[in-house]
Amino acid sequence: MRAAPSPEEIRRHNLGTLLRHVHLSGPASRAALAERMGLNRSTIMALTSDLTAAGLVTEELPKTVRKAGRPSLVVRPESDRVYVLALDVGADRLVVARVGLGGTVLDRADVARPGGTHNADDLISALAAVGRRLVRGTEAGALCVGVGVAFSGIVRQEDGVVRHGPNIGWVDVPLGTELTRRMALGLRVSVGNDANLAALAERARGAGAGLDDIIYLHGDVGIGGGVIVGGRLLGGEGGYGGEIGHMVVNPGGRPCGCGSRGCLESEAGELALIALAGRSGEGASGRRAVEQIVDAADRGDATARSALHQVGDWLGYGVANLINIFNPSMVIFGGVMREIYMGSAAQVRSRLAIDGLTAARESVRLRTSSLGEEATLMGAAELAFSDVLTDPLETLARVRNAD
Amino acid sequence: MRAAPSPEEIRRHNLGTLLRHVHLSGPASRAALAERMGLNRSTIMALTSDLTAAGLVTEELPKTVRKAGRPSLVVRPESDRVYVLALDVGADRLVVARVGLGGTVLDRADVARPGGTHNADDLISALAAVGRRLVRGTEAGALCVGVGVAFSGIVRQEDGVVRHGPNIGWVDVPLGTELTRRMALGLRVSVGNDANLAALAERARGAGAGLDDIIYLHGDVGIGGGVIVGGRLLGGEGGYGGEIGHMVVNPGGRPCGCGSRGCLESEAGELALIALAGRSGEGASGRRAVEQIVDAADRGDATARSALHQVGDWLGYGVANLINIFNPSMVIFGGVMREIYMGSAAQVRSRLAIDGLTAARESVRLRTSSLGEEATLMGAAELAFSDVLTDPLETLARVRNAD
């Protein structure tokens, strides 16, 4: 049973909400924040002075003053001094970045994949070393307030164990606890599924901003998914929900890495497209190969066109199924699915017109990711920021203590 | 921005919660309620005395007293005096019932389907007449606190418009407002999709009690669905979510009433089973025909066995897809899907073993509905009770006013 929240809980909630506003929407005047949050200006002033004292925001006079009277101070996130480490561990991409409060990438490093790509130990050590190096390279006074990892596979969110990393051959690897130990920053490393995190990032600051019902399809080598239902990420009982790439759309179809056949991933993902276009083994990376096929189709290449047509048809079945099941307001295509969708949109839409129920399809919008290649990395950053945005002062105190 | 709830809001919330406890779990002592709600006994006493004064509960001495000292009074819902009208408008079933607080069916009437089954006007009049008759037949002092309808089709929940009733040939029929007008009880009639409501009922007092992630498949003529994600019904943008019967599992397969082919409904529903078993046109009703096929298969009939095998295979594909997408803790088979699942469970499970991802399938339970044929009716009743359980005193005052 919910009792009335204490004044302390209300203050904490308001501090987090204010910080989230400037983190997601950028600098804003006290007056604008008061209006958005439905609070009076003296409450806003008290909140911003707490956040300023903690070093999370600064206040300054606006650059342009339009109205007569005392100008409202502008509240700005301390992007250079308060940051997180965001790690993107994808099939063909290993990135570690420092992302400042407000979402600016401060610096980043691509990590060379150690010799045996399947050796979890080596890879985790390499990631931790790069992470530590980035943190050491910051100026005095800068503070790392969280570490988040976007992993391309099935992750148990509560403890960051990778249950299955199909592209990397991992089963039950304790990625979160091992990174926590080897980075030794005094911060717990949180791990999430990359497509789930990208979906949250697209909703926070991308194509799905402000929408409560979103399906995000992420193409890496496979197809991952992040589904937002009623404003919340679909987790399911164990947090494994959203695996829309393993919906069987073509029973008995192409074999899939998961052991089944005809999954959306194996029929409409990059490997299917490359195979249908007769370009397997040409050596171009996944994304580059897909771009080449889309370009070739644009130039009239019949094989490329036919490959995109087939892939678009299966993608259309998958999207129609998801629209019937979820009645979302938007479907977002991200990662390499962005290119695949752009090359096959007509086919996807014609499938949807046949297989989508009128009530559900009449209002849905199909869009490509607006965060592009950065969606998963930005999702990892948002995961890392979640503590400080929930309880700013307590998190700062804890982090300073561990520092 | 959330401000602190007022004492009045807290009281209203607690009154609703207490009433919901005795409504769903039956009579309980004040002491037990205090423990379940985390409130002290004097607060519980104040709440129960308000509810008693409003005529919603009674308090009485327990029948058996085990401990020494003053016994804790037992709080009992006023099931005979406070009731709702619940309507179940299915493909082959038209029921109107009075359901008392606590979930007891007080009386019920099957409604004869007027001559032209597709004439919305006649059917709505017939339902309204039976509803009015049941209300008139109650003893003095009994109070109808809501009217809820479970409809087998796509419903816009906000205003009770039937967007599409495939089995009945309706398009954009204002069922809610027309029933409200013709019943003339001074109560707004709420309408919901039957499978959605049955899912809520199974979670409230059925197989899924206490679970937050449930998929409910409902077989009528078609296959409807109700999906509960994180404790909340999946609605989607327009409230049309959960149409899992129109997930295409067999591209190019059997034609479906929705205009597509190979939907779960057209491959694994009762019509598919009856057709595969060579029993179309035999005249037995859907449920009876399905039961006969399951019985025949049990006796070794090869055609019936093969039909169940095929249907179970498609059902397995559908269930595996849903498990991968939602990671639910339970899948519940209701309506005639109960019989179909019981006759094909081995095939469903073997499909799931191939096509379900380990992390998602290892903990899911497959179950049949425990409310059985009453699931949709009980769902309609829960919809009708929702006002009084949200704000007991205000709803009572409003209803008494309209009476």
From TrEMBL, chains A, B:
<dbReference type="InterPro" id="IPR036390">
    <property type="entry name" value="WH_DNA-bd_sf"/>
</dbReference>
<keyword id="KW-0418">Kinase</keyword>
<comment type="similarity">
    <text>Belongs to the ROK (NagC/XylR) family.</text>
</comment>
<keyword id="KW-0808">Transferase</keyword>
<dbReference type="InterPro" id="IPR000600">
    <property type="entry name" value="ROK"/>
</dbReference>
<dbReference type="InterPro" id="IPR036388">
    <property type="entry name" value="WH-like_DNA-bd_sf"/>
</dbReference>
<dbReference type="Pfam" id="PF00480">
    <property type="entry name" value="ROK"/>
</dbReference>
<dbReference type="GO" id="GO:0016301">
    <property type="term" value="F:kinase activity"/>
</dbReference>
<dbReference type="InterPro" id="IPR043129">
    <property type="entry name" value="ATPase_NBD"/>
</dbReference>
<protein>
    <submittedName>
        <fullName>Putative NBD/HSP70 family sugar kinase</fullName>
    </submittedName>
</protein>
